[in-house]
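Structure request: Branched-chain amino acid ABC transporter permease, Aquibaculum arenosum.
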Amino acid sequence: MSVGRHHLAWGLLAVVVIALVAYAEGSLSGYERTVLGFAGIYAMLAISLSFSNGLTGLFSLGHPAFMMVGAYVGAVLTFPANRKGFMLPALPEWLASVEWSLFPATLAGGIAAALVAAIAGFPVLRLRGHYLAVATLGLIIILRVVINNADGATRGALGLNGIPRHTDLWWIFGWLAAALLVCWRLKHSSIGRSLLAIRENEMAAACMGVPRARAKLAAFSLGAFFAGVGGVLWAHLLTNLTPGSFGIALAFMLVVMVVIGGSGSLVGAALAAIALTFLSEALRPIEQAMGAYGLVQIVIAVLLIAMLLLRPQGFFGSAEPSFLRRKAAGSRAGRPLSPGEEREV
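Returned structure:
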């Protein structure tokens, strides 16, 4: 695909998304906008997880932990100052008197999550496979215990309610576009190729001079940053917050989105996240009518098993849709695929 057609495809996609968001904000009900907002947040989370896990071969389940950090940091910074004194009495004086707008609070939440990921990543990223998965699940539990016990600054298990509803579809899809742009540019750069090399053969990548530890920590921290951003948007969409919102079930859902979309495919992960969000909401009335609570989780688990059996690489594998790439797959016809490379679809 020529550069001009490549830019035209991205431009048309941006126009379509802007038109859909404008229509949704003006015509859909509050419930419908909330569901669409969750779809956008999940898509951003899936993109960041596909980048940090799919490109490097990590198996981290810690995204809910980073969402938790971002959500509480953003909520405390935007919480009305006249209510902090009696609801959050343990806050330091300088923090109790501030009341930020959404954008700087979102940046602060993302940066705080990235810092937690960088600190935790030094020991944790030495592990591999299911050992890394268990360690990152432990991070979720640790942060939930910390927040539950810091009730003077977070209200603990009671939850923090009355958070201003600053999040709308423009904020959500704006940050979704930012996450896709950043992760896309990095994936299709020398950094992305280094991460793919680590995923395919870590020892060979080290022999070629790829700084494995630094590259994995950077990808892990970038994924955590957008997870923190997603947590801030989540908190200001629901207007209430409890540590129980960010648990193992959410970690499982995010991994399912990445697996179904394709490990390493950014657009595939986003499309899978949106589809699963709408599927879950469509099944909830059936679940309630039948009294079969847990039906949504069963259906999603069956879909995951079917995908692993029939197409273990996911719908897109590690590739992206060809119409969004500068070069079509045909330009590489006749050349053998390199390890881990997928034909464009």
